[in-house]
């Protein structure tokens, strides 16, 4: 009997034979229907700097979806070719914060890379880029708000430090870590590290910045919190804040009620004499612990409020059981009453910021009187690290250098 499947097999065999002989190949390109390629998105030329400056929408217009507002795209395109990649990274970070996007760890490295590449002209150029990105009152408010809530940043500044962090190994060279004070943006903090490098030289070690973001009024609350850990009059002042109440404080400082309330709430949990530990202290301790455990020497160089953080970091490392035999601290403009581990410091008798604190808190005595009361580079205050304490034209910089070199020996 003839199989009932034979016709079906025949039908299947014919196309297979045709394919095997090349008769069933794909159509020639000329016979294919044309495919449409979407046109690349471009920045909107109508969204100029002037239009952007009047735009209430914080993120602005980013028609080409490259992470830059279209007015900032135009700014980058107007720059010399060798600046464009660096400027794009900085503007993308500044613009994101101004547009309401929380800090993602890109701002400080972008600013550091720009400063390293542009050297002498970096400060003026970065200021212009920041002004272009943060160009409305709303964007300024968003930028400041998000900056105040950013975590501490830790960035390698000198070439050896960059290599050490990028490959994840511990160098044998000393790690020299600058810790900034209050009201200091990334640009100024990095400038202070440059001044420290000029004072000691790159042969002394690898330089890092532990950046404490500027928090505006919240910075002052941090100082109160950290001074509370030393007890004394700070505890009295903070107790007074609690008794006055946030509503009364808010009448004196607009929009301060929430800040004071948050500060007082955290302060209420502190006991005088206990070290102040917040997330930024823990993050720096996380960075320093592997360095110290590998036998690497670490020198902390805190300025102003950074000294209070240095005390807290020292106590946190001690709490974790990390050996502190290779850790040294040399402070400048010290608001502390006590110095951890018998470490040394330099405070000018003409530092009017610290002198003002003396009216409220017990503070370690000044130990340098070489500077005049009125200083042209830092009028009235005499407190800046770059232009006062590390200024190579002032004798106080020699005192600071000697203490730093002694700590590195």
Overview of this protein structure:
The structure is a single chain. With 409 residues, the protein is an alpha/beta fold. The protein folds into 2 domains: 42-149, no CATH class; 151-409, Rossmann fold (3-Layer(aba) Sandwich), CATH 3.40.50. Helix content is 50%, strand content 7%. The protein contains 18 helices and 6 strands. The protein has helices spanning 6-20, 49-52, 70-78, 81-98, 107-118, 122-133, 137-148, 159-167, 186-200, 217-228, 233-244, 246-252, 257-268, 279-293, 305-319, 352-358, 385-389, 395-408; strands at 153-156, 175-179, 206-211, 298-302, 327-332, 344-346. It has a 6-stranded mixed sheet, sandwiched between helices. Strand 4, helix 15 (305-319) and strand 5 form a beta-alpha-beta unit. Helix 10 crosses helix 11. The chain is globular, with a radius of gyration of 30 Å. The termini are far apart. The model is unreliable at 1-5, 7-25 and 216-275 (pLDDT under 50).
Write a short abstract of this structure:
The protein has helices spanning 6-20, 49-52, 70-78, 81-98, 107-118, 122-133, 137-148, 159-167, 186-200, 217-228, 233-244, 246-252, 257-268, 279-293, 305-319, 352-358, 385-389, 395-408; strands at 153-156, 175-179, 206-211, 298-302, 327-332, 344-346.
Q: How many strands in all?
A: 6
Poorly predicted regions: 1-5, 7-25, 216-275
Rg over C-alpha atoms, rounded to the nearest angstrom? 30 Å
> CATH topology of the largest domain, anyone?
Rossmann fold
Largest sheet: 6 strands, mixed
Whole-number mean pLDDT: 79
What's the structural domain tally?
A: 2
Structural class: alpha/beta
Give the terminus-to-terminus CA distance. Answer: 105 Å
Name the CATH architecture of the largest domain: 3-Layer(aba) Sandwich
| CATH class label of the largest domain | Alpha Beta
């Amino acid at each position: 009997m003839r199989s009932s499947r034979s016709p079906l097999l025949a039908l299947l065999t014919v196309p297979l034979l045709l394919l095997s002989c090349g008769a069933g190949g794909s159509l020639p390109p000329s016979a294919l229907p044309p495919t449409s390629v979407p046109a690349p998105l471009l920045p909107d030329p109508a969204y100029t700097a002037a239009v952007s400056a009047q735009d209430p929408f914080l993120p602005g217009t980013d028609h080409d979806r490259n992470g830059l507002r279209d007015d900032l795209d135009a700014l980058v395109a107007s720059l010399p070719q060798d600046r464009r990649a660096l400027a794009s990274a900085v503007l993308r970070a500044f613009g994101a914060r101004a547009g309401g996007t929380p800090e993602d760890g890109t701002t400080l490295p972008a600013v550091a890379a720009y400063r390293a590449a542009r050297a002498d002209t970096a400060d003026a150029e970065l200021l212009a880029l920041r002004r272009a990105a943060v160009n409305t009152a709303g964007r300024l408010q968003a930028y400041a708000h998000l900056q105040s809530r950013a975590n501490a940043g830790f960035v390698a500044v000198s070439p050896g430090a960059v290599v050490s962090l990028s490959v994840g190994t511990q160098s044998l060279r000393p790690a020299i870590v600058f810790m900034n004070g209050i009201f200091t943006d990334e640009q100024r903090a990095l400038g202070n590290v440059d001044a420290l490098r000029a004072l000691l030289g790159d042969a002394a070690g690898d330089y890092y910045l532990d950046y404490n973001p500027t928090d505006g009024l919240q910075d002052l609350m941090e100082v109160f919190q950290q001074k509370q850990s030393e007890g004394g009059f700070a505890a009295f002042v903070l107790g007074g804040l609690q008794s006055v109440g946030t509503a009364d404080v808010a009448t004196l400082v607009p929009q301060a009620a929430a800040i004071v309330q948050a500060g007082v709430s955290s302060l209420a949990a502190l006991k005088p004499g206990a070290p102040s530990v917040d997330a930024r202290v823990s993050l720096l301790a996380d960075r320093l612990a592997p360095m110290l455990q590998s036998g690497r020497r670490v020198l902390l160089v805190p300025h102003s409020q950074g000294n209070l953080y240095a005390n807290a970091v020292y106590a946190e490392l001690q709490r974790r059981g990390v050996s502190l035999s290779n850790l040294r601290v040399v402070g400048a403009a010290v608001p502390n009453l006590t110095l951890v581990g018998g470490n040394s410091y330099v405070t000018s008798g003409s530092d009017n910021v610290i002198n003002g604190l003396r009216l409220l808190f017990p503070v370690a005595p000044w130990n340098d009187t070489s500077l005049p009361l009125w200083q042209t580079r830092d009028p009235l205050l005499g407190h800046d690290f770059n232009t006062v304490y590390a200024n190579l034209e002032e004798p106080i910089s020699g005192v600071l250098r000697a203490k730093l070199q002694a700590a590195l020996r």
